[in-house]
Amino acid sequence: MEKIKHLLKKASFFPIMGQKLTPENTIYFDFSESNNDLEKLNLADMASFSQYVPEILDKNGKKFGYGGYLEHRSFYKRSPVFATPSGEYRNIHLGVDIWANIGHPVFVPMDGEIHSFFDHDELGNYGPVIILKHQIEGIYFHSLFGHLSKKDLTGLEKGKKAKAGEIIGHIGAYEENGNWPPHLHFQLVIDMEGQEGDYLGVCAESDLEKYKNNCPDPSWLIFPKN
């Protein structure tokens, strides 16, 4: 874990949204229980919920929103996808969300290959997701891109090379992205644990230590220093 964190901090990356995210074009989004705005929203009405994000962006003159790593979120209870056999709901977000307009292109941050992909079309799930496999100095890790457009899965093949700076996908509309306001869920996963086309993007509080160690903070790739 510490080795990959050190390598990520010093590596070079292409901006995931095609341009650097800066204080000038980006605003932090809080979707934790401390956000009182969520109490006023009808989360079951996706047309209304989806307008919340662009309204905040427009109001503040920003192009992107970001946030969410290890954030405690209560709104996952709207979907049975996040229930566990024990009755505990998964509610700790393991990636970083980048909120943007529908159709905005998403770029490969560093050279890799297609590990797997799938369309999870249940309410609250990823919708179309693509997972890449990368290596730095012989250390392997994976990047997960969730809530994409369905068209982005067309023509994909496992093992296909993905070059830094290439378009990997596009921000999907709520009708196809698992019923969420348009955004990218970006997550790092060291060990895929044999899974294909999927990995938990939200964990239960009782499993936090395990997933925090396997899913390091992806901010180093989202806000590259170079």
TrEMBL record:
Domain of life: Bacteria
Pfam family, one: Peptidase_M23
Boundaries of every M23ase beta-sheet core domain copy: 92-190
Name of this chain's protein: Peptidoglycan DD-metalloendopeptidase family protein
Record organism: Echinicola jeungdonensis
PANTHER family on file: MUREIN HYDROLASE ACTIVATOR ENVC, PEPTIDASE-RELATED
